[in-house]
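Lab notebook page, bench 4
Experiment: in silico fold of construct C2
Operator: M.H.
Input chain length: 162 residues
Purpose: comparison with the prior construct
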Amino acid sequence: MQLVDNNTFLQQLGALFETTKDKGTIWLTHKRLTHDGDDTVMKEEDGSDGNREYPCIVRVTDGRKAKFSTKILSTDLDKFHSAYGALLKASMTTLRKRDKKREKQHAEQLAKKKQRMADPVIINGPKRGNGRRKRQRQVKAALKHEDIKERAAKREEARTKQ
């Protein structure tokens, strides 16, 4: 990964956005840089570690060839962020809109499924004679319904433990 200056970074990032305009992915990471390249001591002897200003590092990769980064000093951070933000806003026009219709349909299906889980299965009909098969199907559906409820309860319990 090559380390470039801020202006070159923004130019290369703009070019990368142009190449992946139709199809592609770009990963951006923004972190505080605590390592200066040589062996550094994390705490100073006099205990004045709290007032030190750390630079930031911004990395970009497309997952294939392009990998580059820049180091931003705290004094240049506002200027860099304004240029970086403008570049991101200009490049985000190619994003697809969310399919809200499909999301709404999925939410409705989940609501129906939860409603069916809440409603008990009604078993009616004779044990023998006419309607026996119908009753057997209802009993089987009731057993399956109870099993589904138990699994959902176990999942919820596991979620609350985490």
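Observations: The chain has a mean pLDDT of 85. The helical segments are 6-19, 77-91, 100-118, 132-161.
Next step: discuss at group meeting.
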